Each structure stands twice: as structure tokens, then as C-alpha cells.
Amino acid sequence: MNSIEVALAMLLAVVGSGYLVRMLPFSLPLPLVQIGLGAVIAGVFKHGVALDPEIFFLLFLPPLLFLDGWRIPKDGLLRDRGAIVALALGLVVFTVVGVGFLIHWLIPAMPLAVAFALAAIVSPTDPVAVSSITARVPIPKRLMHILEGESLLNDATGLVCFRFAVAAAVTGGFSLLSASLTFLWVALAGLGVGVLFTVGVSFAQRWLSRHFGQEAGSPILISLLIPFGAYLLAEQVAASGILAAVAAGITMSYVELSGRLLATTRVQRAAVWNTVQFALNGIMFVLLGEQLPASLQGAMASVAQSGHRNPWWLLVYALAINIGLALLRLAWVWISLRINVLKAYHRGAPVSRPHWRLLLATSLAGVRGAITLAGVMTLPLLLPDGTPFPARELAIFLATAVILLSLLAASIGLPPLLKGLELPPEPAALREENLARRTAATAAIAAVEKAQHELLEKAPGSDIDIYTSAGTRVIALYQHWLDEDSSNEEEARQLRKADVAERELRLAALQGQREAIFELARRRRISDEVSRRLVREIDLQEARYR
After folding, report:
1. What is the count of structural domains for the chain?
2. 438 Cβ partners below 8 Å, 6+ apart?
3. Residue 251: band (very low, low, confident or very high) from pLDDT cuts 50, 70, 90
4. What pLDDT digit, counting tens, does each position of 160-170 carry?
5. Same domain membership, residue 540 and residue 502
């Protein structure tokens, strides 16, 4: 029962944080509020949770990474694959080396291998933390897609570096060849497992449903189980379960293009996944906050090893590591940009140099999160000779402090940094949307005309005018998209204004319908079953205009 009560308490903290962040007289990021609530639960009420990294990785990361991989725009991922790979692979290794030496210089009592382990686990950005920040600030879409793609793929690099740094600290040995081969296997096998597992499950589900049928909720439940299956299978073959979950999500987005699911199933599945995402994101940050009091106590006990008795040196260490991470990231981004500009210049391609504020934003948006915390908690307690692992509690505290400071810096620094920044237009999305709407409208009109012709052949003579009038009304719903394409600029502008006005009027009409149905149900003039069905129909119609 204690575990159930703790889980319910954390869910309550997640719900409460959503209201608390709106009640505060000043703007504060939701993750920081959740971290604060977790620290209060552990420090004041003495009900903290001992974080088991293996359980944490299994319960939280697969579904969240799967969902991010599912929803991330694939065209942006492919278009900017060079920049994403450079950040996810090159920047992590560059950061491990640079920050590792910085940490060892700051804290000589921390062995170099342990310093490299700490640098490795704070190097990868966290997709959940990045998403929580980018949702609140006006980051350009292309930059946001690069940040999301980087955070989805750089975990394998960071965790492999972390694993070998810990092995070097424990055994005193390190092999670059072994580390390189291990990384290739971990990454490639993880991606392959995710793709093959998702495709296999999807084909099996499709075959079973075609031959035997299926329950309405089965596709939703299967989509929830796929990330866990891909993660566990990859871990069984010593590959990256994290990359397997990401690859499963990306593959799922392509599997979905078959369009075989019912519309109602897709709507219900989206609602389920949104709830899962909100709950797991919140619990992750609450858990992070609950680790703060214990890690602070352990760090204060071990900080004397560095020769400093004053606990304020902990803050100095944390600030120095964060500044080092930001400067190395800025240097890597600037050098990569210069190389790309030179390549474009030699090819004779047009050169577009981003504003310096975008470069700073890219550096500041390198937010760390729960993956860093869960990874650093896997540091062994003892060395093979039975002595305590050197500076373990200090490393855990510094990793936690890096998470908090990176979240705080991005939340405070990004909005003013990007405020008023003239961003280059991104017309591609609008062109694609107009193309899709026109193509869909043409197909819809053709389908209506075909169905109308079939109905007219079967209809009695007295109903011909009814079917003709109905077909005309339905075709008119789609014709304006084709009219807008063929009209001049002024006529197209007027049509768009008419669309906005029609949207507002339709929303007002739907709200009036819903209120009338609720009133009839309250007076018991219609049953609850009828009211629920009609309100659901209205809600689905309203979702089209939101």
C-alpha cells in the first residue's frame, strides 16, 4: 500500500503544480515548480522516494521517448540530420573531454575517471526538459526540431561514455577500440531493434484484426506497450533501449500512414497519450526534487575531500560546470556554423547567417533533465576492494544542480533573448498545408460526385432533387479551397477573412448546442446516454476548429 500511496501523492503533486504555477504572481516554469514540490515532500514531510535507476529508466523513459519520436517532424529530422548528428555525437564527446578536465581541475580530490563520468552524464540534453522549455518560448521551428532531434539521439553517446568512465574508475583501465565498437553496437542495434519490433507488432496486429477482429481499445493498448517491448528487447541484447524506444516512435509515425485505424480510435488514443505524457513528465520532475535533500546532505559531507570546508563551494562548482557546458556548446555551434558557411560559399550556394542571438539561444537551450539524474544514480557504491566509490554523493549533487541551473537559465534567459527577434519566414509549412487542403478537397469532391451518382441510380424519381441538393451543399464545403487557389491575392485575402469569421460562428453555434443539451439532461428530458453521445459528436466537431 505504501507504494500506491506514494504514487498517488506524486500524481496529486503534479496536478497541484499545474494550479500553483497559475496562482503565483510571477512567471515560473512548471518543471521548476514540480521540482520544488518534490523537494518539499522529501525535506519537510519526510516522504521521499529512493530512486531505483533501472525501474526509473523502464517506467518513464520508453513511453516519453517513444512519443517524442512519434511526433517529431520527420522532414526536419532528415533535412537537418548533419547538424543533429554533429550535436548528438561530436558535441557530447567534445563536452566530456572539456568538462571532465574542468571538473578535475576544480575538485582535485575527485579522480579524473570520476570527473569524466560526471561530465559524460551531464553532456546529453534531455528531450523531456527541452520540450518543457521550448513550449514556453518563441523558438524558431527549425531550431526547435534540431534541439529535439539532438536530445533524442545524444543519450546513447553520453551513456556509453559514462559507462566506460565508470569502468575506468573501477578497474583503472580504458580501451578506445572497445569503447568505439561498443558504441556502434549499442547505437545501431538499438535503432534496428526499435524499427523491427514496431514493424513486426504492427503487421501482427493488422493480420489478427483482419482475420479475427479486435476490441476497440486494443490499438491504444498496443501503442502503449510497444515502447516497453522495444526497450526491454534492446536491453536483452546489450543495445540502447533508449534509442530503441526513439526508433520505435519514429517507425510508428510511418506505420500510421496506412490510415487503417478508425477516426474515433485515433482521437481516443491521442487523449490517452496526452494524459500519459502529462503525468509522466510531472512525476519525473517531482522525483527529481525528492532526491535533492538527500543528495545535498551527502554532498556537504563529501565536499571536505576537495579541501573546502565551506558548503557554498558546492554552488561555485555547480555554476562553473554549467558555464563550462554552455561555453563549450556555444563554441561547438559557432565552429559548426562557420564550417557550414564555408561549404556553402565554395558550392556557390546562398549563405544565410543566423542572428547572434540565435547562437546564444542554441547554447542556452541545452537543458539537462531526468536522464542525467537517473544515470548518475547508477554510480556504484563500492570499488572492487570494498572501499567507497570516490566522491559519489558529490557527483550526484553536482548532476542534480546542473539540471536545476540549466532549467532555470533556459527559462529565464531564452524569452528575453528571443523577444523581438526578427526570424526568417518559414513559408514551407503554409505551402504544404495549402497543398494538402487543395488535394484533399479535390479528392473529397470527386468522392462526393461518385457517391451522388450511385445514390441517384438507386433513388426513386421523387428523391432525385433531394440527393442533388445534398450533394451540392457538401461539395460547397470543399469548393472554397479550390476557389482560393484560383483567385487573385485580394480575393484570397477576403476568403481567408471569411474562413476566420465562419470558424468563430461555428464555434459559437456548437457551444450553444452543447449548453442546450446539458440543460435538457439536467431537466431529465433526455437520458444521460443520449446527452453523452450528442455532446461527444459536438466535441469532435469543435476539435476541427481549435
Report:
1. 3
2. 481, 482, 485
3. very high
4. 788 888 888 88
5. yes
Range of the domain at 459: 434-486
Model confidence pLDDT, tens digit, residues 355-392: 777 788 888 888 887 778 778 877 887 777 778 888 78
CATH number reported for the structural domain that contains residue 191 in this entry: 1.20.1530.20
Q: Which residues pair with 382 in a beta bridge?
A: 388
Residue 28: C-alpha distances to residues 320, 365, 410, 435 (Å): 24, 17, 12, 40
Separation of alpha carbons 232 and 236, rounded Å: 6
Q: Are residues 204 and 267 in the same domain?
A: yes
Q: Are residues 155 and 190 in the same domain?
A: yes
**Average pLDDT value for the chain:** 79
Instruction: Give the tens place of pLDDT for each residue, 424-447.
Output: 555 555 566 666 667 777 887 788
Count of residues in the chain = 546
Check whether residue 301 and residue 324 sit in a common domain: yes
Q: Are 477 and 518 contained in the same domain? A: no
All three cell numbers of 337: 556554423
How many angstroms separate the CA atoms of 36 and 46, rounded? 14
Assess whether 539 and 397 both reside in one domain: no
Q: pLDDT > 70: what percent of the chain?
A: 81
Beta-strand runs (E) in 13-76? none
SS3 content of the chain, % helix, strand, coil (to 5): 80, 0, 20
Q: What residues contact residue 481 under an 8 Å CB cut-off, 6+ apart? A: 437, 438, 441
Residue 429 lies in a domain: no
Determine the Cα–Cα distance for residues 233 and 241; give it in Å rounded to an integer.
8
For residue 166, how far is the Cα from the chain centroid? Answer: 28
Going by C-beta distance under 8 Å and a sequence separation of 6 or more, which residues neighbour residue 480? 495, 499
What is the per-residue pLDDT across 25-60, written as a single tens digit (0 to 9) for each? 776 777 788 888 888 887 776 666 776 777 777 888
The predicted structure's pLDDT at residue 1? 44
